[in-house]
Write a structure and sequence with these properties.
This protein is an alpha/beta fold and about 260 residues long. It has 2 domains: about 90 residues, no CATH class; about 110 residues, Zincin-like. The chain is built from 8 helices and 10 strands. Helix 6 crosses helix 8. Bound molecules: zinc ion (ZN). The site of zinc ion (ZN) has 3 residues, from loops.
Length: about 260
């Protein structure tokens, strides 16, 4: 790192420290937490104006404060929107924990999670048979294993359906992977790589099918022109039902974890 770059990074650090201090003082001075314990104050140097943003994944509402805005104004702004903040938080889908006894939708089937703990076992064994996700484990907290297993079967099912649909239009997929994104359910790159949210496994079949059809259709038409939607519909089992399910209930998929 050159002298200039070092100077710049020290300045950035100083700025970050200053913002952290400003935030720290503000949280001591103004009762933001009384508006809601799930209100998260964030000073964002790139923000242009005060804003409230709902974050379904974090189950919070973020108050975004521009660098130069005074914290008293930020507090007044949040206080004025107190009712809106609480309503938005109440509307958020409540998280569902992947643990013993919980029923989750998996590929459109109500599936019961059954955990059998046995510390003498050598390893964790997970199977999905007859609407039951059976976990035999020596781990007191098997959740990371369950998540890993679900991501694995997500990739398997998404890959199988993607290749099947790509074959219908005579296209090749170069790579498929799964991610944990809550804003995009899928994507398709110019070099024919597809990527999906593993959480699609919690969606009903027609919605799962629609998202796969959508990304595969991008192998044919990159944009969202009428030609694209036609290609997408042709690849779907039930285009309108799948598309509208994702539009209205897609947010539900972030509940599980
Ligand atoms: Zn698209």
């Amino acid at each position: 790192m050159g002298a200039k770059a070092l100077q710049r990074s020290q300045n950035t650090l100083k700025n970050a420290d200053k913002l952290a201090l400003k935030l720290d003082n503000a949280l001591k001075t103004y009762p933001f937490h009384e508006i809601s314990p799930n209100l998260v104050v964030k000073i964002n140097p790139r923000a242009k104006r005060l804003a409230l943003r709902v974050d379904p994944r974090a189950n919070s509402v973020n108050l975004v404060v521009p660098k130069r805005t005074s914290m008293i104004n930020a507090y007044r702004f949040a206080d004025k929107n107190r009712i809106w903040i609480r309503e938005k938080l109440e509307e958020l889908p409540q998280p569902i924990s992947l643990e013993h006894g919980v029923v989750i939708p998996l590929f459109g089937q109500e599936t019961k999670i059954n955990v059998v703990y046995d510390k003498t076992l050598k390893k964790t064994d997970i199977t999905l048979i007859n609407k039951e996700l059976s976990i035999k484990t020596n781990k007191e907290n098997p959740k990371p294993r369950i998540l890993r297993y679900l991501k694995k079967i997500a990739l398997e099912r998404l890959s199988a359906l993607s290749h099947e649909k790509a074959a219908q239009i005579d296209r090749k997929i170069t790579k498929i992977d799964v991610k944990d994104t809550s804003s995009r359910w899928g994507s398709c790159s110019h070099d024919a790589k597809l990527s999906f949210s593993w959480r699609l496994i919690f969606a009903p079949h027609h919605a799962f099918d629609y998202v796969v059809a959508h990304e595969v259709a991008h192998l044919q038409v990159m944009d969202h022109s009428p030609a694209f939607w036609e290609a997408c519909e042709a690849l779907c089992e039930d285009y309108s039902a799948g598309k509208s399910w994702m539009k209205h209930y897609g947010g539900e998929l972030v509940r599980y974890g």
